[in-house]
Design a protein that fits this description.
single chain; 145 residues; Arc Repressor Mutant, subunit A; 3-stranded antiparallel sheet; 7 helices; 3 strands; 67% helix
């Protein structure tokens, strides 16, 4: 019964945090060249992923999800608007709110970034059982809570 709780030991937690860090670095390293060619960085990448997965996302929701200031978000948004990667539309219900979408150019760029990461995730998933993938996703979701 005691062995059931060994995963809660501090050393294991540190190991998991290190694995998350290394996984993040490995997963996103392939897209760095694509981002650099467009003079974009990690903040732009995170925002593109978020908008791609949540078309029409409101600025307030982005602020809450990414835990950034309005000023830093606005800088990244303006960069992406200038490059014609995103479109802002006023919310029909509340004109003060803006909804953010990827433009056609932004969708193509997002797909290029996704393709540079897809094979690594797909390979890991293929080496895992459906249950392992499901449990992994659940743990990641709980980390976000």
């Amino acid at each position: 019964m005691l062995k059931d709780f060994l995963y809660l030991k501090e050393k294991n937690l540190k190991d998991v945090i290190e694995l998350l860090l290394k996984s993040y670095a490995s997963l996103f390293s392939g897209s760095e060249q694509t981002l650099k060619r467009h003079s974009l960085g990690k903040a732009h990448h995170r925002l593109i992923i978020l908008i791609d997965n949540n078309p029409g996302i409101k600025v307030t929701k982005i602020l809450n999800m990414l835990k950034v200031t309005k000023q830093s978000l606005n800088r990244v948004l303006q960069d992406l608007i200038k490059k014609d990667f995103i479109i802002q539309k006023k919310d029909e219900k509340d004109g003060r709110e803006k909804k953010i979408y990827l433009s056609d150019r932004g969708l193509e760029f997002a797909n290029n970034l996704f393709n540079s990461q897809k094979n690594r995730v797909l390979s890991a998933f293929k080496k895992s059982s459906p249950d392992e993938v499901h449990y992994f996703k659940n743990v990641l979701k709980r980390i976000l809570e």
